[in-house]
Amino acid sequence: MGPGVNVDGVPRRTIWPTDGGRSVEIIDQTRLPHEFSIRTLASVEEVAVAIATMQVRGAPLIGAAAAYGLCLQAQADASDSALDAAAETLRATRPTAVNLAWALGEVRAALRGLPESEREAAAWRCAAKICDDDVAGCRAIGEHGVKLIEEVWRQQAQRRPVEVLTHCNAGWLATVDWGTALAPVYLAHERGIDVHVWVGETRPRNQGASLTAWELLQQGVPHTLIADNVGGHLMQHGRVDLCITGSDRTTATGDVCNKIGTYLKAVAARDNDVPFYVALPYSSIDWSLSDGLTQIPIEERDGNEVRRVTGRSDDGRMLEVEILPQASPVANFAFDVTPARLVSGLITERGICEASRQGLATLYPERS
Ligand code: MRU
Question: The domain 6-133 is classified under which CATH number: 3.30.300.30, 1.20.120.420, 1.10.3210.10, 3.90.800.10?
């Protein structure tokens, strides 16, 4: 695989500036797995819509997209008031992943004190660095996390695939390249370890079914799609060696907020002595928070995401169909919090640590 994740055999990032720096291009994730469609974004408003409608999604990728949004704003009008308004528009798109606010803060800091004429170029440089750092960070997460898979592989009495369970999409598509939870899987596969991934469909938007399954297929990694509520059963029957998920926001005390349903997997993992790891870059850590349950804003999305499912009909058309009685009310909480006590360890670009303030301090002493 070499430089990163491939699409049809070609290494690709999930976001990139177009020639001349007039716009950015993204893969429209709302069309996958049925269509690989590239969309051009040429204004901060278009970036905001792409994030809100989840054409781009996944915590690190949202951050990268927001950074490019500020570049497009700086191109149109680089005054402080215009940049502040653009940052607010972007910040309001999705509340839970802290990478969004983090990336906006990075770009604003890079422009501070610069004359307006120099701001656009500085913004593009900063956004490119955010992307390059994300790629390097995810690759490093892979290097640290693969040791956990290698360990299971080494300790087996009889050769069988190492069984990893993941949730949602914390892969290449959620980042600029490599992914967080899936980076260790990709490296294990590259190193010849027989690894198999259980992929939870991840209702209501089915990012596991539509995105994780698709990208594992692109990489040739063996996987099986399961309904969301199957994970506990598999763990009870010894069919999961370890769980690895991503994180949209991790507190300084190691509580982890991730896609709704992550908590239930962690509870089942604890009940069955299955290690439960969470993979994340430093840009997902909110150092200002100490209690995930009460302090992390949980996104509530449109109820239609619960009410309907999207798919492809036999004649190739994309369709949305309703699956419940029209009069039934719905609730659509998009994330939940897994308390640090249920997390076996945090896999970061600097190594693996205990999910606790002390654990994070060993890897990030500058923040303790
Ligand atoms: O709502 P989404 O699709 O943006 O949620 C994505 C997740 O919850 C991922 O697990 C997450 O961003 C992990 S970071 C790679």
Answer: 1.20.120.420
